[in-house]
Request: fold
Amino acid sequence: MGINMLDNNRMSKKLVLLLLLITIVASMPAMAFDKWTSINQVETGVEPHFLIHDTETNKLHVFCCGVDINWNFTYDEGEAYPSWCVIDLNSKTLSSTEITEFDFLSFSMTGFRPAADIKNRKIYIPNGQFISIFSLDDYSKIDEIDAGSTVAAVDYNAERDLLVASVNPIADEEGKILFYKGTDQVGEFSAGIYTKDVRYDNVGDVDVLSFICDGNLYGTEPSFHKYILDPEDLLSFSHEILNTGFTPNHLVANPDATDEPDYTSFVASNGSHNIMPYYLSIEMAAMPIYTGTNGWDGARQMFLSSNEKSKKIDEIYVTSYSGDFRIIDHQNGNEVIDIIPTAGKPEGIIKVGEHQIFVANQLDDFYGPMNIIEVFEKREFPHQVKEDYQYYDVPHDNGGISIFQTLNAFYVVNPQEGISMITDGVAYTGKTPLLDPDYQLASETLLEFNIDAVCKPEFLPESNHLFIASADTLYNIKIEYRKATILHKLSLSFTPERLSVQYDETDEFGQIYSVASVFNADSIQSFLFLNDGLYGGTSSEKVELNTWKYVKNDSFIFRLLGINDNSAMSIQFVENETYEELDTLDGFSFNTDIALIDTILYITDYTSRLIVGVNAISGNFEELFRNHIPISFYWWCYR
Reply:
């Protein structure tokens, strides 16, 4: 059911819930909390590398390098051509559309950079020794410029209606910077060896041409070039060649910013793990900004985040092959203030609006090809939140209603009706709708059901799984971006009084494990999930486990471990079977607790400082030792 007008009865219910929720939120302490969080992944062509945002149509253009798996410079089965894809950001469900493929290996391996002329609806794409010109409206090919040698990067300057290209001949020969008006060449400068990224900016009464060079195949003789030009005839007033970090990768600048000494260029270098600032009026680089990366996993691409009014550069966002993008506080010592994990090794990065960042994951963790654009959204709440989600329990006559808040919406979970998403319905900006009177609230029913609920729903923010237990059924529901899907409806052998869930982080094989258990006074029934699938289940008419954990051995046998006030218990899961094996271990006082370290379960008694060590995955619940030992050992188990 899409977003629509609610009938009077349902609207009344929602308004009551919203008023209650407003009261709860208003009573919470006011604290700023900003966090970039991954909310979506979109598949594109192979090895997405560079991103351009068309601000007129709100479409994201993705340029993918393709892959030559065996490095033989010839297309073989299983390899991929370079491609150009488009993601329509106006759509609720994001997906990419391939516009065209290009000749194999035609995108330069030394700093491929396309450029767009948004006003005149053109896009310029380096394509071997050509610059291909396409329409941004219907994606038809308009024209082509033969640059004579491999084109690495282009930049378009709207004020001068000028296209600038960095061009490289054969290996270890000096490159060129070419200037074009339309398709006519109007100028040429000599450049360094392996010329890469290039920019042309208007700064007051002069223009600035800047570009970076590797210097050799390995990027160990890099340089940053800066020309100050007369815009009328492209004659150079001055030319400086400055050192930069090894293997410079990306060049950005701040022609509109006001907080620097003057116009500043920034160069991100993979090999030196830094960002180098260069000022217009100072004939040297400023102090390098270190990104904290190491090895082969240095800085890749970046963007500058400026204050809209003051034009001050507040932060620098830079991707790294460490599998993240990093936020650098430019106003306070250029320190890395946050590291945001990504799905792979990211290259391109772009900010769209104030609350969304798109990252091009070009490689996986093993430097293999990847094809994922990852969407990050900024959470901006005026109150403290718990990790990624905030939970609210709202009293209701029917019982069981819960509300939890994600990055851009409130989800109302009413077991008698279903799951509804309450949000602004239009912008999805990440702000808290209920605290902003200008928002037009809308409700979208994501999932409908009608059950007799007796347990409070439990949500796992780590895996986006929502569990709801009724009198005879356990529902496992996947909450995705503006979507809810019932993965499993599992029969229960008794009426539960409590639902508890536990999440385990991904293992080395990329698997995600979670356990959902329901209890009453004398029974337990548990289900183990592997990723989104059911792995196994157990049930027992035994006493409730007050505290519990689970463990997996190398043979994929899982064991649920728990204690009550005077005994310990384990329940075994076997794949695709409802098989149980129970062990007990008696002789404990009250106030016991457990810690699981590797394959040993440590059971402690606070009063007597008793530690019992148990082999957690053996065929029997084998007691290894029972000793009075210092309490410091207990704390060591939990550090």
